[in-house]
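Lab notebook, design round three. We kept the backbone fixed and only want residue identities now. Task for the bench partner: fill in a sequence for the structure below.
Input structure tokens:
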């Protein structure tokens, strides 16, 4: 089981990046009843058979991980969604991309803490490769959106400690604004 929701978000978003997506959208919606995550990508997508097998802990896509024969990310996600009165759904088309939506009841006693969302997003933005990641966090009627390319340009790149520190400060300020709104 993941220790925090941020771990789950990192794992599921990382799947899109690993799938060769050039464009990834990560949206978090907190409406007071549910904590919902939507990840859209234009990666390699999955056929119907792969979607059916995706929640099987004894299945992982061939070649995805050199030394692993199992894939526990999505089965653990499903278990967490089921345990917290949430839901998980995958829509995908081979060669087109994937949409993963999952949610958890915000008030459920077994819901893990959010964890450090700022560090998670900075880490995802800093993942190597040529891809655009657009992150939106909506809480009630307030929201903010930031694209990886915009943030990298604003802080002078995400390859240096200074750039990463500025990115972290910016995202922390956006999260603080959501909490205080």
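Proposed sequence:
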């Amino acid at each position: 089981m993941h220790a925090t929701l941020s771990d789950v978000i990192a794992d599921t978003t990382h799947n899109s990046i690993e799938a060769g997506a050039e464009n990834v959208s990560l949206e978090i919606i907190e409406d007071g009843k549910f904590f919902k995550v939507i990840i859209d990508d234009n990666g390699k997508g999955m056929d119907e058979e792969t979607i059916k097998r995706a929640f099987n802990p004894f299945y992982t896509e061939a070649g995805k991980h050199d030394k692993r024969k199992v894939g526990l990310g999505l089965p653990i996600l499903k278990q967490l969604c089921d345990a917290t009165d949430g839901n998980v759904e995958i829509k995908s088309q081979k060669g087109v991309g994937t949409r993963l939506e999952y949610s958890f009841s915000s008030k459920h006693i077994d819901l893990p803490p959010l964890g450090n969302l700022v560090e998670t997003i900075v880490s995802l933005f800093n993942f190597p490769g040529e891809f655009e990641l657009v992150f939106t966090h909506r809480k009630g009627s307030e929201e903010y959106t930031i694209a990886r390319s915009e943030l990298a340009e604003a802080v002078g790149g995400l390859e240096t400690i200074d750039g990463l520190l500025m990115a972290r400060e910016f995202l922390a300020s956006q999260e603080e604004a959501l909490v205080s709104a």
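Keep this in mind before ordering anything: Confidence is low (pLDDT under 50) at residues 63-70.
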